[in-house]
């Protein structure tokens, strides 16, 4: 086990240490298959719901940002952000020709240059202490106009320690219900060990 000095997941230094020491047990090493299907299905869903065929997307807390490449290759206007400089370096290495779309930024202060059609969630909520969740959900709601989408993988688990900090289905739906309608929920079939059997793909529409 590496020797870490930072114990606060709300500090960039916490994540810097883990990326710099190559200790990233949450890292799948690629994008989930469910996202590939979501991207492939988007044009049909977009036509039915009057959404843009090439959405403007934000990936907050992006880590290595494997998903960015898939989105950009599909013609989406995607941006990945992280407040950890070491994570940004990792993501830029993964992104290749899309490296300019990876930015160092604090999600709670970041101002997208244009309105967002989609926020993609992957191990961002569960990286934060539970006391931060209401603020995070409100930020999602503030950045998305009515009809815009929040979609991604959510971690259901009752273990008190983290990260990753799990939630229950009831708690998650209670947090999002004031601003979002859940339109799809299904288990993820290709989770890594830390999330196996506890990871669900959810899609939410901003009211």
Describe the structure in your own words.
This protein is of the alpha/beta class and 207 residues long. It is 31% helix and 23% strand. It is built from six helices and seven strands. Strands 3-2-1-4-5-7-6 form a seven-stranded mixed beta sheet. The longest helix has 17 residues. It is globular, with a radius of gyration of 16 Å. The model has no long low-confidence stretch (mean pLDDT 90).
Blueprint (SSEs and pairs):
Layout: H1 12-20, H2 33-49, E1 56-59, H3 66-73, E2 77-82, H4 85-95, E3 102-104, E4 116-122, H5 133-143, E5 144-155, H6 169-176, E6 180-187, E7 199-206
Parallel strand pairs: 1-2, 1-4, 2-3, 4-5
Antiparallel strand pairs: 5-7, 6-7
Helix pairs in contact: 1-4
* N-C termini distance: 45 Å
Please mark out the parts with pLDDT under 50 across 5 or more consecutive residues, or reply none.
Answer: none
Question: What string, H for helix and E for strand, traces the elements in order?
Answer: HHEHEHEEHEHEE
Largest sheet: 7 strands, mixed
Strand order of the largest sheet: 3-2-1-4-5-7-6
- Tally of individual helices: 6
Instruction: Name the beta content range.
Output: 15-25%
Q: Provide the gyration radius in Å.
A: 16 Å
Shape: globular
| Number of DSSP strand runs | 7
């Amino acid at each position: 086990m590496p020797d870490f000095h930072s114990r606060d997941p709300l500090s960039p230094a916490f994540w810097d240490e883990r990326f710099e020491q190559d200790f990233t047990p949450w890292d799948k090493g690629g994008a989930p298959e469910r996202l590939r299907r979501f991207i492939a299905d988007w044009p049909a869903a977009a036509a039915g719901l009057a959404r843009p065929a090439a959405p403007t997307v934000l990936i907050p807390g992006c880590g290595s940002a494997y998903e960015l490449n898939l989105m950009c290759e599909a013609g989406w206007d995607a941006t990945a952000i992280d407040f950890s400089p070491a994570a940004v370096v990792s993501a830029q290495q993964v992104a290749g020709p899309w490296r300019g779309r990876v930015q160092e930024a604090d999600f709670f202060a970041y101002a997208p240059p244009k309105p967002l059609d989609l926020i993609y969630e992957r191990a961002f909520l569960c990286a934060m202490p539970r006391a931060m969740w209401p603020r995070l959900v409100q930020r999602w709601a503030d950045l998305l106009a009515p009809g815009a989408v929040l979609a991604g993988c959510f971690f259901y688990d009752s273990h008190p320690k983290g990260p990753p900090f799990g939630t229950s289905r009831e708690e998650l739906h209670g947090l999002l219900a004031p601003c979002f309608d859940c339109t799809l929920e299904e288990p993820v079939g290709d989770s890594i060990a830390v999330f196996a059997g506890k990871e669900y793909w959810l899609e939410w529409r901003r009211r």
